[in-house]
Design brief:
disordered C terminus; five-stranded mixed beta sheet; alpha+beta
Length: 415
Amino acid sequence: MIREITPTTTPEQLRAELAAFLADPYPTYRQMRDQTPLEYVFLPPGIAPGIDEPMRAWALMKFSDVYNALRDHETFSSARNPLVAKGIFPPLVLILDDPPRHTRFRRLVNKAFTLRRVEALQPWIARVAHQLLDEIGSGEVDIVRSYTIPLPIRVIAHLLGIPEEDRDTFKRWSDTFISSLVSIPLEQRMKNTQEMVEYFGRMAAARRAHGADDLITALVEADIEGESLQDWEILGFCILLLIAGNETTTNLIGNMLNILVDRPELWQQLREDRSLVEPVIEETLRYESPVQQLSRVTTREVVLSGVTIPEGAMVSVFFGAANRDPQEFPDPDEFRLDRDLRNHVAFGMGIHYCLGAPLARAEAQITLNAFLDRFPRLTRGTAPAVRQTTSPIVYGFQQLPLVLHPREQRYAFSH
């Protein structure tokens, strides 16, 4: 939703327009891309304490502008987010850090997300995936509630060392955290954040008393240049890993299955040729990017596409728009497997490239192979598919009913 907000614009109008944009942002991207960088109202006045005037930001939608901004972390800072300064969001580590802090923290958690560790985890992930599919069986099912939410939450809960039976609470926390202030009131957001902080505080205290082989133990025992992490840094890590670890993958898997259900020929092709699984995942990442946008703040005056953006300006980096830029990806609104996708920005670029990208890809690959093994066909359910319309950050489904068609049983009769 990128337009001027007038004094007569009501909160109901804002919520309706935002919901329509979040359900399908791509027409807006097509219409606005060539006009960007473009300044717009990021948050209207009165939406939260301390926001007495419209909070403005510059939208970047061209691939070249997005790519350059993501690569230039010195000019486009992650650590100067005004929403953190105003106390609206907690100061998450890594994603809201610049070097040298970012470098030290990244080095710490890189060990947990190496390709070797992800590969070692894959047999366990596959067991969880097949367990979920055993519970689903066949027929019509909301694949979001039954699969795309529980799989990533079980995986990240396993890594962090927290009980997966709390997964409904985890999902509520995640959804509220990444929602827009227009969609969910600040009081509700603050309540959920406080619950999250208290929960992970208890977990960290338990690990200090009795360590375990998990990420929270690694964080409380970490030593960075002779210093332990402070409590708020440990909590920031836990919150980031919980949210990023499930939201991105949930939406990647849901978007992928939604694309494939309307392409039965491609489904059959995939069942016969599994070398196409990886290209399907990468094209899904480009075509319907799970993360649509994140914010930066300029540390100096900078010129992009001939437009001067002043120092101290908030910038909205639209990954989803960049990945549909026809200057970089010909026929961008077509789902094709013959593209060069090395430069898509679905997982970001530069020093903030998504830490969990190998894990998300592994979960998507295991999922797709498991579905292909079990189900000769997918078709749409009778209930409607419903996009999420509360978070401007991610793009995915609130509800995705699919009919899973089982393999035909073959019986042998003896005389």
